[in-house]
Amino acid sequence: MLIVVGAGAAGMAAAITAARRGIEVLLMEQNNRPGKKILVSGNGRCNIANRRPAPARFHSTRPELVKKTLQGYDAKRILDFLRSVGIETEEEEEGKLFPMGRQAASVVKLLTRECQRLGVRIVTGCQVTGIRQDQDEFVVESSEGSHRCRQLLLTTGSPAAPQLGGSNAGMLFAQSLGHRLFPPRPALVALESDASWPRQAAGVKLPARVGLLASGSLVTEREGDLLFTDYGVSGLAVLDLSREASLRLAEWESCELSVDLTPKWSKERLSKLLTERIDPERDLSLELWLEGVLHRKLVPIILEIAGIRTATEKDLNRKRIGRLVYTIKHLKLPIQKTRDFRYAEVATGGIDLAEIDPERMESRKLPGLYFAGEILDVDGDRGGFNFHWAWTTGMRAGESVRS
Q1: How far apart are CA 182 and CA 377, in angstroms?
Q2: Strand partners, 182
Q3: Closest residue by Cα to residue 186 from 43, 348, 9
Q4: Fewest CB atoms less than 10 Å from the CB: which of 63, 159, 318, 328?
């Protein structure tokens, strides 16, 4: 018998794949229903995969092993699996794939139904409290009693979104069995700042280019939506660089963001625009004059940081225009920390891939012990890549367990 601990995307993919090979499967889930994290993905629309799952979209301490695991599992193979359980998909921007009905609940229903059809025994509300070896068997202790098996698959995920059941319990079980664990950190998460001015701009959302500086050096840069909040910043551009910020902050590096509020405008073009906007006859107050270019909540912030206290537009000169342009295109924001795991979509870290067979997903230390999904030291970019990793590793494990 195969015991699978964790009925998320990876766990159900593995259970289905193994059961189709005639293997008896027990699927244990701590929540009151399978696929709870799937239900909230893509705001309930479920960005289920991506058309272009390039290895560069996945992050790990062992990138060469990620590449090996992904080989042979392109989008077509994942979509064939999804179609086999009744899920049809459509492509949106950036290669994002969604179920045609745009309902995560339907994805969970179809996966669950296929498990049931194949005779997979699903036990929900089942909290695993311990895992140990007893000669050539694994003993899984749980709130529903003790279970023995020769093959055990851990698909328990990461600590991200604990309100949906996310935890590091599976990682700790694996560690107790001798596996190396890279500490998990929040990723795809908003960032917090002690600076007061983001609160003044709370609720402002705009396209921006955001650079992450660690110890004064530019580490990475992303372009996309930026949202100012009471605690700091969020938005797609911030989520996309949050992984690197999380790791740098964990190493006690000083971090700050450099925000370009007008990413479509070069410095020269913006300077020309502002200069040509000056009309001495109109003589607008500087605040109102700048509202013609920026959101009104950002205007006093920009003027304060630029150190410009001129009363009206006619008082502007080349030097002051230069300071305005620099501040608009290099707005600095110190970052103290990421938001905690409650607000993270995924986590960095996990079980070291060097100790896992990248084709079978089986432990190199303990034959019969398998891993799949987010419990491993791999996290993907937003856009369906974490689902792709879950389906790929779940299917690999399900195809590899011995009958």
Answers
A1: 7
A2: 350
A3: 348
A4: 318
User: In which element (H, E) is residue 13 found?
Assistant: helix 9-20
390 phi, psi to nearest 5 deg: -65, -50
Q: How many of the other CB atoms lie within 10 Å of CB of 280? A: 10
- Which structure tokens are listed for 69? 């695991």
Give, for all 403 residues of the chain, the pLDDT tens digit.
Answer: 999 999 999 999 999 999 999 999 999 999 999 999 999 998 889 999 999 999 999 999 999 999 999 999 999 999 999 999 999 999 999 999 999 999 999 999 999 999 999 999 999 999 999 999 999 999 999 999 999 999 999 999 999 999 999 999 999 999 999 999 999 999 999 999 999 999 999 999 999 999 999 999 999 999 999 999 999 999 999 999 999 999 999 999 999 999 999 999 999 999 999 999 999 888 899 999 999 999 999 999 999 999 998 789 999 999 999 999 999 999 999 999 999 999 999 999 999 999 999 999 999 999 999 999 999 999 999 999 999 999 999 999 999 999 8
- Map tokens 């650079």 to a residue: 211
CA 161 to the chain's CA centroid: 11
What are the strands of the beta sheet with 337-338, ordered from one edge?
Answer: 331-335, 255-260, 205-214, 217-228, 232-234, 191-192, 337-338
Prediction pTM value? 0.94
Burial class (CB in 10 A: 0-12, 13-18, 19+), 39: middle
